[in-house]
Design a protein that fits this description.
The complex is a heterodimer. By secondary structure, chain A is mostly helical. Chain A contains 6 helices and no strands. Helices cover 78% and strands 0% of the residues of chain B. In chain B, α1 packs antiparallel against α2 and α2 packs antiparallel against α3. The relative contact order of chain B is 0.13. Classes of the chains: A mainly alpha, B mainly alpha. Chains A and B meet through α1, α2, α3, α4 and α5 of A and α1, α2 and α3 of B.
């Protein structure tokens, strides 16, 4: 049975460690949400693409906080690496229009914001799980590989077909017509 | 302590931001960007649940979701390039030759 002083010191250390985690969580989620808002509100679409890249990177940081290191790496490689480059190419190959955005009537805007607020409050009122996870899954490459090549090997093979179809489709669509 | 609610709130608000941008913009490429924002919000949701229930299947789901989102972005952008080639515009309201 540990003494009261030792227990109090342990509790103080635990509170300090969790406070830093909370600060980092708020910083990362602030960057995520801010860059998402900037994506939709930037005047130039090139800036939107760059803010989208920032959002992808901050979501990768969020994945690391959620014990999903493999997913964070995949997110950076695929999203921030490939999808952003695709979008930048598409932006550079098309002409920028003067964006006259749709006017969302004020009343509808308020109603949808209210709906979003209700949704957030409802989700946080449901009693999901109020405790920290006891055994957090380690999202290491080993663990994901064990699952991916045993239980989920069929979706894995189907995904390869999907990617093949996407490659062929995108190439076929984007190539220039041969001049007869 | 960070509960699952924190991540669910981030995911929901991000999804709302993506939906708002999707409805407001006319530029087809920006529409695709907002779709990617919404997909990422769903991914955060999945990974949060995977962490807080101990099931690793959520992360496998996210792996497949990322693959499919990348394939869909590639094809969507190829379609946008073809539309630009044919109509010289990528504004969502102007491509209306199929309207009656």
């Amino acid at each position: 049975m540990e003494s009261t002083a030792l227990r109090r010191k342990k509790r103080q250390k635990r509170w300090k460690k969790l406070n830093l985690e909370l600060i980092i969580f708020f910083a990362v989620s602030f960057v995520t949400l801010t860059s998402a808002v900037l994506v939709i509100s930037a005047k130039e679409i090139f800036h939107s693409a760059l803010y989208l890249a920032v959002m992808f990177l901050s979501i990768a940081a969020l994945f690391v906080m959620l014990n999903a290191e493999f997913l964070a790496a995949v997110q950076i490689l695929v999203y921030a690496g490939a999808v952003i480059v695709l979008m930048l190419f598409a932006i550079m190959l098309t002409k920028r229009e003067d964006e006259k955005e749709r006017r969302i009537p004020l009343f509808r805007g308020f109603v949808s914001l209210l709906f979003l607020l209700v949704l957030v409050l409802y989700i946080t009122r449901i009693d999901w799980w109020n405790y920290a996870p006891k055994e957090a899954p380690v999202g290491s490459v080993t663990a994901i590989g064990m699952l991916l090549f045993r239980e989920y090997v069929l979706p894995f093979e189907v995904i390869s077909l999907i990617l093949l179809a996407a490659i062929i489709g995108a190439l076929f669509l984007a190539k220039k017509e041969a001049v007869e | 302590m960070i509960t699952i609610y924190h991540y669910l709130a981030v995911s929901t608000i991000l999804f709302g931001v993506g939906t708002y941008g999707l409805l407001k913009t006319r530029n087809a490429i920006k529409i695709l960007m907002c779709i990617e924002i919404m997909l990422n919000a769903a991914n955060i949701n999945l990974v949060a649940f995977s962490r807080y229930t101990g099931e690793l299947s959520g992360q496998i789901f996210v792996t497949f979701s990322i693959c499919i989102a990348a394939a869909e972005a590639a094809i969507g952008l190829a379609i946008i390039l073809v539309i630009y080639r044919l109509y010289s515009t990528i504004e969502a309201g102007k491509i209306d030759t199929m309207k009656w």
